[in-house]
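Friendly challenge for the regulars: who can give me the structure tokens for this chain first? No prize, just bragging rights.
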Amino acid sequence: MISDALIDGWGLRIRELRYLPEGGGAYHWVAHTDDGQRWFVTCDDLDIKPWLGSDPDSVFDGLLAAYRTAMDLRASGSACVVAPIASVSGAAAERVDEHHSLSVFEYVQGEPGRWGRPLSTRAQGELLTMLAQLHRRTPAVTTVVRRELEVPGRDGLEQALDCLDGPWDGGPLSELARRELTTHLGVVEGGLTALDRFAASLAGPDANAVVTHGEPHPGNLILTPTGLVLVDWDTVALARPERDLWMMADVRPKLLSDYRDLTGITLEHEAMSAYRLAWALSDVAAFTDQLRGEHRRDADTGRALAGLRSILSGREPSPYGTPVR
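First reply, four minutes later:
Bragging rights claimed.
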């Protein structure tokens, strides 16, 4: 099916299609074509991207908009942006069935990063410069969705918190997840309340809103012979720059002054804390939804349970491998 979709949608003559068991929320292949080129193929699962929409159709619309923003950024000269290749119809992605869509990217030769892997001081500086340049490209995008402080899937999380008294029978890890949430109910509810306070405090006109990637952690970086590039642009949005920069706060002491020197923008400590909290709560919501619903015991659900336990016990996500105090 994938080969046929690539032929029909992009006119690619496939010689070999090799599956890559990498990433979450999508399936990936490397496609070798008859002309000797390689392409990176992504099949997005439209059921598990709550930040884009609440159903497969709205998620697909959101995905198209996000990928179009990435294409605009690349066309404006942002070499760090790995954007989709337009299909024959000119679209950034093509629907392959009700629950999945397909997109094609240039194959990037380089060393992929990994979540939790520290960056060298030099690489940190390169990433910071890259993000500052990205933020200055805001006028180049024709359309970009605006995102406030939010927790995708919050309604589902709050419904789950209202159902902690009875057993959860979605799968073998459901009860373990329910017990963790029951034990740490105050942590979750307190976090949601704190996030609402942050949102109210930071609300209002914001002249510093810029186009942000949203998840510039090591797992979305590739080190190429010419420098770092960013992949996975389905989270791109207009937001405060802190949305991209909170991840580096623990590993780069001069982050705020370095960014101010590059852009003239002064980052706010309150906004950095707010986006860190939003990330942790978003993970809690995603893990809860996964473990409360139908599932099997496997490596993926095992990581979800471990992640849930880690966050609820106070160990917030540390994308660059440095523990959060």
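The chain has two domains: 1-107, 115-317. The mean pLDDT is 92. Your move, everyone else.
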